[in-house]
Each structure stands twice: as structure tokens, then as C-alpha cells.
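Bench log, entry 3. Co-assembly request; chain sequences pasted below exactly as received.
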Amino acid sequence: EAGVVQSPRYKIIEKKQPVAFWCNPISGHNTLYWYLQNLGQGPELLIRYENEEAVDDSQLPKDRFSAERLKGVDSTLKIQPAELGDSAVYLCASSSKTSSGELFFGEGSRLTVL
Amino acid sequence: GQNIDQPTEMTATEGAIVQINCTYQTSGFNGLFWYQQHAGEAPTFLSYNVLDGLEEKGRFSSFLSRSKGYSYLLLKELQMKDSASYLCAALIKAAGNKLTFGGGTRVLVKP
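Structure output for the full assembly:
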């Protein structure tokens, strides 16, 4: 069974440019998460989806960040415009109702803003 | 709010035992996860405790005390490949299940 797939793995952009990350969760997982992880720190939740509905986006900086999961399967996270402080790893994870809350993570998209 | 604390870094010798402590203050607590994360890789599941007590899984064990808001991960017979970050995460029952992570403990295993 394929795991959570994310792309791109690495992205280098200049500040004020837009960037987008894509995530395809494990088949059948209805819950999808986007986390931000700074170097040497734990992941911080940005947004959580139950199917196509964003049920928790309280930590998403909505002035520059947006996300969508239109058909309740794959998801896109966008930053526009990017700032230097956005340099981090963006992790996508998914879970199912039967997994007792266990999250399955993708390998992440490492963003460097110059 | 939610608060999860764990040490930043620990060093141990190959073959030894290391215990990583985690304390949490959360509302709606519904269980405690431990994840392992090697540098540059995705976090991977190690253990899940929802009831008080010790869960043993090979060289790794995890303990939970809900009344004390305390958990630990015990790594026995340390191997060099155990050098990684270990993330403590509390499952919060809020609009479904939400996993909130601590800052992670970087464990360095020396020969």
C-alpha cells in the first residue's frame, strides 16, 4: 500500500514569490493534516480536513496561506507571498477513523525562502 | 491551552538504556503517542497509550500516568540507528481527534 505522497521534496524561492505543495494521502483516509516543522522543533498543525471540510484551521495564517481539498482526496497548500520566516518543512499526514488517531506522515516538502 | 514538555537533547551509550520524559497539560486528553523521526525523514509511529500503565514493544516501552499528566519512552539496548528525535504527542478530543506535538527530544547514541 502506498504511503502519503508529497511533492515537491525541496523548493527554493525568493521572498514574495508564491509556492504550492501537494499531498496525496493514503487511500481511504478521510482525515488529512498539514503541519509545519521548523528545524529542531516538533510539528505544528496548520490545518486539518475531514473529507473536504476544513474542521480546524485556527493556526493557519490566512493572510498568506491557503489550502484546499476539493474532492476530499488530495490537497494543496499555498503560500502567497512567501516570507523568509516561512522556511521550514511542510508535512502532510493522514489518518482513518479506525487508526485510533495514529497519523501517517509523508516525507515533507522542505521550503527555503531566500 | 495545550502544553507539552520534553527535554531537548539526551546522549547515551550504545547498549545502554535511555528514558525520555514527557509532561503535558491539555484539555480533552484522549491518549499519548510517541513518534520517531530521523533527520530529514517523516515521523514514524512508535507507541500509543490511552490507559495508565506500561506498554512494551520489543526494545521500546512507553508509560502513561493520566493523573500526573506524565509519560515516558524507554529505549533499551540502544543501537546506533536509534539516534533520532523522539516526539511526544497528545491526542485531543476536540472537533474530532487532534494530535499536538511537543518540541521533540534529540537522542544521540555514542559508541
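Residues 52 and 97 of chain A are 15 Å apart (CA to CA). The longest strand of chain A covers residues 88-95.
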